[in-house]
Amino acid sequence: MPPPIFRVNDTRESFVMQEGSLRSVSALAAAGLIPEGQAAGLHAVAARYAVAITPNMVRIIDTGKPDDPIARQFVPTAAELITTPDERADPIGDDAHSPVKGIVHRYPDRVLLKALHACPVYCRFCFRREQVGPGGEMLSDDEIRAAIAYISDHPAIWEVILTGGDPLMLSPRRLGALLDALEAIPHVATLRIHSRVPIVEPARIGPALLAVLTRRKPLWIAVHSNHPRELTEAAKAACRSLTRAGATLLGQTVLLRGVNDDPAILEALFRAMVAERIKPYYLHHPDLAPGTAGFRLSIAEGREIMRVLRGRLSGLAQPTYVLDIPGGAGKVPIGPDMIEPGGVRDSAGRLHPYEQD
Ligand code: SF4
Question: What is the pTM of this model?
């Protein structure tokens, strides 16, 4: 069967950054987000890793606090230029599983399709920080057709996950054409989009975008959010619009030192997600991306946070704590492991005898 047609007929720019976004060290300094005297040392960081913060995120930063958890996610620091020996440019091994440009085929039943490498914000801990940025741009129409042809030629592919970059940065017309082509492939049963847009630039979730996100096949949108303060009224309204349009929302969170490495903060975040019909899906252990050592905590610390959450939170609000094995071997759940040689430990830390074969 020939692959479905991907045609946009749209010569306008495929995506635009939000007006008022801060995209340089000078703009961040002028907004009071970089302490006086530190800006000069950060130009080299911004030359290596893209910088952008949307007005919605700027508004919720407490500039009086040097360790504000929102600022920490987006404001560059000099430490990003230090790469530790275990860090790598492609920490989760996308390149090793890329049969055609834009596709990552790591598991038999699903592929990633990275159509665009731009984001509304640039997170300082990003695992694709060597790829994303204003210069990363998007696949050409021919490259998108080749990616669609690959999916069409592989009947085992049951799910297509649009990621990037941020797919909701695409113009509604371009995103709609892409979703139409993917939905037309008979063996693709379900579609998923990974996005920061509903949280950091909720105004983008307007009628034109919502219209193309209303699909015949199930559409899941994994919303990336790391701190309860990010769920502003505007972000919550955007998420409700997506749900009303027929998407099922999932929550994706990265466990980050100095941002959310506290059970109370994660509890508030996951409760707020569920209240907005967002099912917490994954809590990612931070990847070994270059210059991100300051965000990483140990797996033992992460497991302890998850153990505390087990005792406090409904299962509805529990994400799976996962690690992407460096190099590309895939994602694995990493705890908390309540089974021990002596028995099984409850969420309060007490060990109970339990016979195991
Ligand atoms: S939005 Fe996602 S892909 Fe973009 S910089 Fe942040 S973590 Fe990376």
Answer: 0.95
